[in-house]
Amino acid sequence: MVAEQLQARGIADRKLLEAFLAVPRHLFVDPALGNRAYDDCSFPIGYEQTISQPYIIAFMIQSLEVTRYTRVLEVGTGSGYQTAILSLLARDVFTIERLAPLLRKAESALSLVGTGSVRVKEADGSLGWPSYAPFDRIIVSAAMKDRPLELLDQLAEEGKLIAPISGDAEHLVLFAKEGGALREERLARCAFVPLLKGEA
Ligand code: SAH
User: How far is the CA of 64 from the centre of ligand 1 (A)?
Assistant: First the structure.
């Protein structure tokens, strides 16, 4: 998976590749999938949600430049697989999931792998986590209709946020706070599950 899906497509960050080698993806998917857990695709994880394709996770994290000095907010814990990868790279990970049963499953999978510092919360993640803000990096794993204004408010100066934004066509958009200004860059086309708003 790491050689064929990540390195061959230009993911070169050594620590990021090591994190993918360290986290067993099969613990985060239906056991019936067996070794297909390492296939080049997303898979259903119940409740109409999916575990993301490994390459997309790697591309997003590489674009964000997550280091051991960064505090990361993740919106959409899902299976917890990306949470585990982030936790091996960042100083602290704060992850929010709106669907309680998925969060419980993710927590039990995370407890099986050696992760770094992870705090979880069941809520609408588009509102962020004000008590722990500001965050150096924010990663959103479900498609937003508009620019993530509440999350940008909770992004530190010199911070970066990546989110799928669905307009006429869905794109991964990187937002960077640089010298008091906000830079916005469309990186690639993508297809994520839609963000759910409000109470579950
Ligand atoms: N990176 C995750 C992707 C999970 S899919 C993985 O690889 O497993 C996106 C997740 O976002 C789903 O679990 C969905 O329930 C969650 N989600 C959707 N809307 C949300 C919201 N407003 N707040 C928090 N989580 C949300």
Answer: 18
pLDDT score at 71: 98
**pLDDT beneath 70, residues of the chain:** 199-200
Contact between residue 95 and residue 115 where contact means Cβ atoms under 8 Å apart: no
* Closest residue to atom 14 of ligand 1, CA basis: 76
Quote the CA–CA distance of 191 and 143 in Å, as a whole number. 8
Catalytic residue among 52, 87, 126, 141: 52
Residue 199's pLDDT is 67
Spatial CA neighbour of 19 closest among 67, 51, 64: 67
Query: Which pLDDT does position 133 carry in this prediction?
Result: 98
Question: Is 111 one of the annotated active-site residues of the chain?
Answer: no
User: Which residues fall within 8 angstroms of residue 39, CB to CB, at 6 or more apart?
Assistant: none
Where does 9-132 show beta strands of DSSP type E?
43-46, 49-51, 71-75, 92-97, 117-122
Distance CA 86, CA 2 (A): 16
Centre of ligand 1 to C-alpha 179, Å, is 31
Radius of gyration of the chain (CA): 15
Mean of the per-residue pLDDT values for the chain?
96
